[in-house]
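Severity: low
Component: inverse-folding endpoint
Summary: output formatting inconsistent between runs
Steps to reproduce: submit the following structure tokens with default settings.
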């Protein structure tokens, strides 16, 4: 039980730091604007965390359902990326587990599912950043990398 309380407190603390960090017009660190869908998923995620802290199982389950629904929309938009589809299915399974644990009133199980959800998000965004970087290198090679001068 002490370990679960520590995990919840650490998660709340880290989310507080993220929430208090300055936002440049909802932009990610690479300067690209955060999509509407991603912004909504982040809001639902923060609401799940709030639910964990307050033991609001109904709120946790509802916000997990909303995240799962949004993942369906994004899955349709990004259906051409098979690696993303793998990440998407993992996200959906974890959302289902979060819903199951919330419906059972199992705070420890819901906390564990939320931590898995967080790891899933980090892995997916790492993949997307890597895919975006590879795509931009394919489209327009940097002259400094090719040794070709624009002079």
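Observed output (run 2 of 3):
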């Amino acid at each position: 039980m002490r370990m679960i309380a520590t995990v919840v407190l650490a998660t709340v603390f880290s989310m507080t730091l993220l929430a208090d960090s300055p936002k440049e017009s909802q932009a990610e660190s690479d300067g690209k604007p955060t999509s509407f869908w991603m912004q909504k998923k982040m809001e639902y995620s923060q609401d799940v965390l709030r639910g964990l802290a307050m033991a609001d199982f109904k709120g946790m389950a509802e916000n997990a359902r909303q995240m799962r629904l949004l993942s369906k929309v994004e899955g349709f938009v990004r259906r051409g990326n098979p690696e993303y589809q793998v990440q998407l299915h993992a996200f959906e399974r974890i959302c289902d587990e979060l819903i199951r644990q919330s419906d059972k009133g199992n705070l420890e199980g819901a906390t564990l599912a939320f931590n898995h959800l967080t790891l899933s998000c980090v892995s997916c965004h790492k993949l997307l950043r890597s895919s975006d970087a590879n795509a931009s290198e394919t489209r327009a090679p940097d002259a400094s990398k090719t040794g070709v001068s624009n002079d």
